[in-house]
Specification:
The chain is an alpha/beta fold and 349 residues long. 28% of the residues lie in helices and 20% in strands. The longest helix has 15 residues.
């Protein structure tokens, strides 16, 4: 755990929408151990009225207030009982709710949306636009933001794997990304595809090419960092593990770069980043080493005579890929230490 001051400078009173999902539960557990965050409402249509520990697995019996309905949460927002909304809803659900409740455009002082609804910088009617919350890449844009779109798990790992190369203009063509993902990335709703019998003992590709919903998000971030369009091809794979992403990005280089030069440049770029660790040459990321942490492990080399970049990354999709990054964004926006309440070390066993 990173060092923390004795008392928080202020508190954020949070209404957590979508508290029953994996990302919502992960946020609740992290928030309850955070010195600046107070859970004002755990919001779920299905579980309204239940005790918090009946919804969020592993909580003590008196850890958080009972689960409320959306209507009760809206009343709490309107009355000022909560000032921050964290939305861990399925894609499309937060946009729909925000459009049906105009109060959400202005009443909560701060909104962090973990879905893909506003990652393109869009806004609800009468409200401010959403800022893309990937701190290591776009930290300067978060100051003063009141609406934050939390990045997707795949784009987080992909962007961090390529960030130094994109910023320095190394790439000369399209990027091809492959990634293994734990099944929690598919959400908590039961389905045949993610059942134990269907998944155990093998791994499989899905939505290969340019059809995955995260491809436009990756391309936007890559282009923004490179200052030019960067086409993306993506081959995600579902693996028989509960959490984690193991990603590889391959791209042609504009000029030859040695493995040592690439590794040195990455180490220099990430030297001040608490949640990115650049591994030593010859050492490669593993999902278990970042499990339950907010850290991204990155390793890089070049091949084909230094003309092709091969960058790798590992994250916990529920922490750095979702709830942990949401807390990291809250810390930055509220002026708290960026690593406040966030684990930097993995829990491999």
């Amino acid at each position: 755990m990173l060092c923390m001051p004795e008392a928080p400078p202020l508190r954020a009173r949070v209404a957590l929408f979508g508290a029953s999902g994996y990302a919502g539960q992960e946020f609740a557990r992290r928030a309850l151990g955070h010195p600046g965050i107070e859970i004002g409402c755990l919001v779920s249509r299905q579980y309204a009225g239940c005790a918090a520990h009946e919804l969020v697995v592993g909580l003590g019996s008196d850890s958080a207030p009972p689960v409320t309905s959306v209507e009760q949460a809206m009343a709490a927002i309107s009355s000022g009982q909560v000032d921050t909304v964290v939305a861990c809803l399925p894609h499309g659900a937060w946009r729909q709710l925000a459009e049906s409740e105009p109060r959400l455009a202005s009443d909560p002082a701060l909104v962090v949306d973990l879905s893909s609804d506003f990652r393109d910088g869009g806004a609800t009617a009468g409200g401010p636009g959403y800022v893309y919350g990937l701190p290591e890449a776009f930290r300067d844009t978060l100051a003063g933001a009141t609406r934050i779109a939390n990045p997707g798990c795949y784009p987080t790992a992909a962007t961090l794997s390529l960030l130094p190369a994109l910023e320095q203009g190394w790439l000369a063509g399209p990027v091809t990304i492959t990634a293994l993902s734990g099944v929690s990335g598919a959400g908590r709703a039961p389905s045949l595809r993610t059942s134990f019998t269907e998944l155990e003992g093998g791994a499989g590709f899905y939505k290969v090419g340019e059809v995955h919903q995260h491809v436009p998000e990756m391309a936007r971030s890559f282009g923004r960092l490179a200052g030019a369009e960067v086409p993306v091809a993506f081959a995600p794979q579902l693996a028989p593990m509960s959490r984690g992403i193991l990603l590889t990005a391959v791209a042609p280089l504009a000029r030859p770069i040695t493995p040592a030069q690439a590794s040195e440049a990455y180490a220099e770029r990430y030297a001040g980043e608490a949640f990115v660790r650049v591994l030593e040459p010859g050492t490669w990321p593993e999902t278990r080493l970042v499990k339950a942490s907010n850290r991204c492990d990155v390793a890089v080399t070049t091949v084909h005579g230094g003309r092709t970049l091969l960058a790798t990354a590992a994250i916990d999709n529920l922490v750095k890929g979702a709830a942990g990054q949401a807390i990291q964004n809250l810390n930055l926006v509220l002026g708290w230490p960026e690593g406040w309440g966030l684990p930097v070390h993995g829990n491999p066993w």
